Amino acid sequence: MRRKNKRGISGVVATVLIVLITIAAVAVIAGFVIPFTKDSLKKSTECIALRDALKFDDSFGYNCYKDGSNALSIRASNDDVINEISSIALVFSSEDNSEKIEIISNGKEIINENGKLTMLDSSKDIKLIGKGEIATYVYQSADSELFNKVEVYPILASGRICDMSDSIELKVCRDDIEIS
Q1: What is the pLDDT of residues 10-52, one digit of tens each?
Q2: Is-contact 54 136, C-beta < 8 A?
Q3: Which of 104, 99, 88, 89 is nearest to 140 (CA)?
């Protein structure tokens, strides 16, 4: 019998090649997965600290409606996290309608197709709430609708709107409250 000359790779070389290919595949996959996961985790957690950053404050008797205007007072937390907010979305709602307006530092009033927003003292410029501050805003719907509920949402510089921070049921203003 004659033996044929067979050549092949040894088991050790084959194992080393498989290990190297596996390591290379893991490195390539990790190069995509790790940055994606970091970005996703950051986006999913960036609003957690802002959950209670904005609250409606009723200590001055506002958070009410009267004469076609809706007033509300918002208190900002004392945490530095409040500095991450670039604007605030307010959603006014009634049984039949809802309207959204975004508060940004922008002159004496903010006007959109639904109505206008001013500070309670209409001579003051609209401003975002600072750390530990309370601001009272007056919203007048274009059709003078009175809303019975308001929700507040922090908005980050990235444009991301965080979950609702607080909501309040508006009531009729007391006679001694002037908001027009």
Answers
A1: 888 888 999 999 999 999 988 888 887 776 666 667 788 888 8
A2: no
A3: 99
Q: Quick one: what percent of the chain has pLDDT higher than 90?
A: 18
Question: Quick one: which of 148, 160, 152 has its CA closest to 134?
Answer: 152
- Say what the pTM is: 0.72
Q: How far is CA 42 from CA 35, 36, 38, 45, 66, in A?
A: 11, 10, 6, 5, 42
Q: State the Cα–Cα distance between residues 168 and 11, nearest whole angstrom.
A: 72
Distance of CA 83 to the CA centre of its chain: 13
In a 3-state reduction of DSSP, which class is residue 34? helix
154 touches 54 (CB < 8 A): yes
**Using CA atoms, how far apart are residues 99 and 12, in angstroms rounded to an integer?**
71
In sequence order, the β-bridge partners of residue 171 are 64
What is the phi/psi pair of residue 38, to 5°? -60, -45
User: Look-up: residue for tokens 């007048």?
Assistant: 140
- Contact between 65 and 71 (Cβ < 8 Å): yes
